[in-house]
Amino acid sequence: MLAKLKFLLYYTHRFRWWYAGGVVFLALTIWASVTIPEYIQKSIDIIAQGRAGNEDQFYQYVAIILGLALVLIIVRTFSRILFFVPGRLIERKLKGEMFQKLSSFGKDYYDDNSAGSIISRINNDINGVRMITGFGLLQIGNILFSLSVTPYKMWAMSPTLTLYCMVPLVVIFIIVRTGMVVMVKNTHLRMDALQRLSGKTVSFLSGNGVIKSYNIHKWAENQVEKENVSLFDYTLKISWIRSFVMPLLGSMEQILKIVVLFVGGLYVINGEFTIGELTEYIAYAALLTHPIMGLGWVLTVFQQGFVGISSIQTIMDRKGVDDLKPGLPTEEKSRLVHQGVSVKNLNFTYHNGEGPALKHISFDIRPGQVIGITGRLGSGKTTLINCLNGYLKVPPGTLYFGQKDASELRGHDIRSAVRTVSQDVFLFSDTVENNIAFGAGLNLEEEHLQNVVYRSALADELGRFPKKEKTMVGEKGIMLSGGQKQRISLARALYAPGQLLILDDVFSAVDSDTERFLIRQLFENKVASSLLIISNRMSVLERTDFTIVLEEGQMVAKGTHEELLRDSEFYRETWQVQEGGRK
Ligand SMILES: Nc1ncnc2c1ncn2[C@@H]1O[C@H](COP(=O)(O)OP(=O)(O)O)[C@@H](O)[C@H]1O
Ligand SMILES: [Mg+2]
C-alpha cells in the first residue's frame, strides 16, 4: 500500500501547482453551489410575502443568483481542467516509460507474454492510474468539501430533518457500493476476456496468410467467436448494473426530496420554517446526493487504479536484461571486435528449453576472417549467432570480445559492433529506403544507399517499382517476395555493417545467379572486418577461412573446405548433392 502511495506521489507531485489551483477552484465551486440556495430562499420568501414595493430587492436577488450561476460554470470548468490535465499528462509519461521499460526486456519476457495481451493490459493499467490522478482526486476534493459544508448548512437549519435525510443517503451509498463491487469483479473478467480476444485477433490477423492457404477460416472464426461471446457476456453484466443502479440512484434522490417535503412541509405549516427555507433545504439535500454517489464511485476508481498500479509496478520493478551493466564508452564500442572474438566451451539452454541447445562450443574469430557455419535444421546455428550478437545472454566466461567478457556487456553495445541479418526478416511498414537506412533520418546518404542497393542485388527490382526506393513495403513487407525481403534486410546491414557482420541463411531464397553476385560483393568489397555466414551452400562455404559444422548443438567438425570434405560426413554429403546438381 505504501509503495502504491509513493508511486502516486512520485507522479502527482510534479503537478502540485495544477492540483493546488484545482483545489482553489473546487472550493469556489462548492461555495457558489451552497450560496445559490440562500438567495433562492430569500427570493422565495419575498414572493411568498407577495407585497408590492419589494420588487427592487427581488431583482437584486435574481441578479445575484444569475451571477453566481455564471461563476459556478466558470469555476467548475477550471477545477475540472486543472485536475484532468495532470491525469492525462501522467498517462502520457507512464506510456512512454512503460514502452522504454518493455523494450529493455529480453526474449524470455516476450516468449511468455503475447504482444496483444501486453498492450491491452498496459492500456487498462494506465487508464486506472489516469482515473485516480484525474477524476479520482477531483472527486475526493469534491466529496470532502461538499460533505463538510452542505451537511453543516443543513444541520444549522434543522438537526432533526437532517437526521431524517441520513436514511435515504445511507441507502444510496450501500446501493452504489454493492453495485460497484459486482461491477469491479465483472470488469476484471471483462479485461481478461478482452486480453485473450486481442491476443487471438492479433495472432490471427498476422497469420492471415496461413489461415487462407489452409482454409481454416471456420476454426479461426470459432476461436475468436468464443472469446467474443465471453467478452459480450461480461460487458452485458456490467451494463445491467449500470442500467439498474443509476436509475435507482435517481429515484433515491426523489425519495430524499419527498422526505424533506413531507417533514419540512409540516415545519412550514407549524411556522418553524418559511417556504423559502424549505426550498433552500431541498436544494441542499439535492446537492448532497451527488457526493454520496461520488463516494461510491471514487472507492471503485481507487480500488481499480491500485490494481493497475501494482501491475505497472511489477513491470517497472522487473530488471531489464542490461540494467545493471555499465555501458561502454563510444571509442571502446568501436574497437570491440578489433582483437577478435573467442567462444570458450559455450553451453546454452533456452529458459523454456528442455535440454541445452548448444554444447561445448569453442572457436575463435580473428579480425579479417570469414567464417562459415553449417548444419541441419535445428542444429543450433541461429542460437549460436544469437549468443554472439548479445540477443541471448551467455553464461560468464564463455564468450569474449578481446579481453571483455560478453556477459558483462550490454546487448546494445555488442550489437553496435556485431550486425546480424537474421533468418526471419522484419520490415517496418514504411518505404524501402527507410527500411534500409532507418534511423538515418535526414542524414540519409543517397550515394551510399544506391551503392548498398546495388550490392544487395536489389537495383534491378527496385528500378522496376514505379516509386523506386520510395515504395511502401506494406505491413511487415507483405508487398515483397521472401527473397526481396531478405535482400532489403541484407542492404540494411550493409548500410551500417558494424565490425562483425553475421548473415543467417540469406542465400536460401535467391536464385543461383543472384547468389553468385551477392557472394562476390561480400567477399570482394570487404564490408566488415569479419564475416560470419550461416549457409548450406557450398559456393559460399568453399570460400571461407574455416567452417563449423553443428549437429544437435555440438561442434562436430571445424576446418577448411578440404579438411571438412575429408572429416565431416554431413559436409561431404551436402557437397556431393550440390556438385551433382551443378553437373
Ligand atoms: N526460443 C526458443 N525457445 C526454446 N527452444 C528454442 C528456441 N529457439 C530455438 N530453440 C531450439 O533450439 C534448437 C536449435 O534451434 P536453431 O538454433 O534455431 O537451429 P537452426 O538455426 O540450426 O535451424 C532447436 O531444437 C529449437 O527447437
Ligand atoms: Mg536457423
UniProtKB/TrEMBL annotation:
Q: Could you tell me which residue ranges the ABC transmembrane type-1 domain spans?
A: 20-304
Q: What Pfam families does this protein map onto?
A: ABC_membrane (PF00664), ABC_tran (PF00005)
Sorted alphabetically, the Gene Ontology cellular component annotations on this record are: plasma membrane
Q: Please provide the record's keywords in A-Z order.
A: ATP-binding, Membrane, Nucleotide-binding, Transmembrane, Transmembrane helix
The GO terms describing molecular function are: ABC-type oligopeptide transporter activity; ATP binding; ATP hydrolysis activity
**Domain of life here?**
Bacteria
- Domain ABC transporter, residue spans: 341-577
What is this entry's stated membrane topology? Answer: Multi-pass membrane protein
**Compartment(s):** Cell membrane
Q: Which residues cross the membrane?
A: 15-34, 58-85, 129-149, 161-184, 244-269, 281-302
Q: Which InterPro entries match?
A: AAA+_ATPase, ABC1_TM_dom, ABC1_TM_sf, ABC_transporter-like_ATP-bd, ABC_transporter-like_CS, P-loop_NTPase, Type_1_exporter
The yes or no answer to whether the keyword Nucleotide-binding is present is yes
- The answer to whether keyword Transmembrane helix applies is yes
Its predominant location is: membrane
Q: PANTHER family given for it?
A: ATP-BINDING CASSETTE SUB-FAMILY B MEMBER 10, MITOCHONDRIAL, ATP-DEPENDENT PERMEASE MDL1, MITOCHONDRIAL
| Protein name (Swiss-Prot/TrEMBL) | ATP-binding protein of ABC transporter
Species of provenance: Geofilum rubicundum JCM 15548
The lineage is: Bacteria, Pseudomonadati, Bacteroidota, Bacteroidia, Marinilabiliales
